[in-house]
Amino acid sequence: MKKPFVTVLMGTLVAALLLTDASFSASAQSGIPIMRRVRELVSLLEDDNDETVAAIQVDQLSQSSNIRTYTRTLYSGNDYTAVAAGDDRIHDTDLVVYRRSGDSWVEVGRDADTSNTAVVTFHCSSTGEYKFEIKAYSFESGYSYGFYGFVLSFD
Prior knowledge:
155 residues; alpha+beta; four-stranded antiparallel beta sheet; 8 strands; 20% helix; globular
């Protein structure tokens, strides 16, 4: 039986935190923690939620460049889960999903809570171009940049 992804995610956040590299503070530029986090998200989506991963992206956000966008063609009839997760330097990660409508973008969903993991689930009613806007809303004290991981899946 398929479990709601948000329930699975909340139940495993502690496990994801345990995967954080112990030397993270000593090596603040390390990409290892976000790669471990992305691996855990992929496992949750594929193994626990029976979804197929369509895209994975890892990049850096900073105070001067705190928004990244990613566009992709999505297909009608699929239910999608988009997850953007920051590493330990990013305090608050936000995610907004848009669908192209003519010459403009229409918002499909958003997760703008105050955690460093944002999840948006939505149904694709028509094949077309979608845009994912990932934002580091705030950073942990003493940091002005960090890595994020983005995973898009469907069932």
